[in-house]
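call fold(seq) -> tokens
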Amino acid sequence: MTSTTTNAPNWLFQAHQLAKSGITELIAGKDCGAGYGKAIYGDFSLMMPSAYSLIRNRNIMHHQTISKDGAWVRYVDGHRADLREIQYFWGSAAIAQTDHILLHEDKSKKAELALESILADLAVLNIPDGMKLSISLSNHNPERSSTEIKRRVSGIHTFQHLHPVTREIVSKTVEIVVSEVYPEGFGSIAYCLFGEASLVLDPSELAIALDIGSSTWIATVFNGAGAVIGRHLIEGGAGQLHSMIAEMLDKRNDKASFLSRDVKHLPSLVNQGILDGTLTYGNASTGKKFETEYKQCLDHWWSSRIEKFASFIANNNYLDGAKYLVAWGGGVLLPGVDQNLADLGFVTLKNPQYINALGLKLLTEISKGA
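ret:
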């Protein structure tokens, strides 16, 4: 997923400021994305890779870590008695471990590990002790998962993490209230209609949205009242593109690839090369450039999925009645995708990777009458 995150000095300043702020309650929205989790806590935004690694050997010393996009967390006590004394890594800290789970490879983990992802967020933010958190979440199948997510997340939880400034282990207690679990993309619609990205749309008028995420493309047709008229999920988001490029690098047989010809290339390192803008696998100075592989894979990945999107729109005769074509999700920032979308008449919204989280926070505020 293509995205940017707060740089380390700003993150440390933000963590210090929040800890000393005296804030006792935060209103939040979290998009538990399969590739990256995006969240808005009060005025603070956060994005971390959706990766988890359970610490099985607790005798290993000095394994505690924290950064702007990953953390070690220990659950001490609270509503989730099943997690008592469990330690785990989240985000980049998890990816650094040999034994880790990527949520885009098993979407059921988004619901199962919702609390773990939130506690990791709160560790990186360095929240004050005794905080109350009101939060709205999203899920691909809230009808099936909402009750279970609320059961797993709601309640009082005490946990430990490494202080980002002092590097000491600190304990925090937080009370979490789950306002609601909404369908994936519902927050984005709310933000489009009622937030800063407001679209001027009458109840009888339609907008067509395309959300390109790590594991899926989601087409949504909605009206000015916020009602979803049609929805279509297309498998194979940006994560699939990363895997396609990695597989092409596996087959490369030039001189630069001789030493690694039997090594499986990692989609995560392909993604890193896209994120930093170099299109280089590994070290920027000695790694492999993959501009050719990127272009070839992008063309195939884009054409096969945009055809499915077009078929959904055409078969249901949505296009003629649509006032807007809008795009969001971190995948819309992939090199070349932004231009492809513009050529089709799409408007890519500002901060596209955070749109759903912003809307979920807005929905939490509305539910609380804030």
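Confidence is low (pLDDT under 50) at residues 1-6.
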